[in-house]
Design goal:
Shape: elongated
InterPro entries: SHOCT
Oligomer: single chain
Number of strands: 0
Distance between the termini: 72 Å
Radius of gyration: 23 Å
Protein name: Putative oligomerization/nucleic acid binding protein
Largest sheet: none
Number of domains: 2
Transmembrane segments: 46-66
Pfam families: SHOCT
Strand content: under 5%
Domain SHOCT: 98-125
Length: 156
Amino acid sequence: MGRSEQAGRGTGGDGPVSRLHENATKITSLLVTAVWFGAMFTGQDWWLAALLVGYVAVVPLVAILFGDEDDRREWVDNDSSTDTAETDESEPTDSTTDALDTLRERYAAGELTDEQFEQKLERLLDTETLEGAQEWARKREQERADDRNRDLEYDR
């Protein structure tokens, strides 16, 4: 039986095992903190080693093994960086695909309204390339400056 099947046991996949699996990184961080804090306050000489080993080795390892996709991205250094000139702009990049998938998931979950989804999708597609992102940032900064000027004129 696989780990995901075991985690699914209990009350509809929301049992103690699945909750433990989902929060493994947070629980590990809490335990590491408790161990080194306890060692420091009881005068143990090894508290600094516990702190360093805990946060440099144990927590990242647990995050990689048991964490969700966000935990993995935070702790694993991707070597998938490629030169933008070498990529074919007709095909979406992995980061664009990930962002699009995340946007779709948030919309499907009801976190975004139709209007918010359309705005974010348009922004995502406009900023797909480095030049597009720079152009979007310039437009956004110009809009902010215009808003500030309007506010100053209104205050007068």
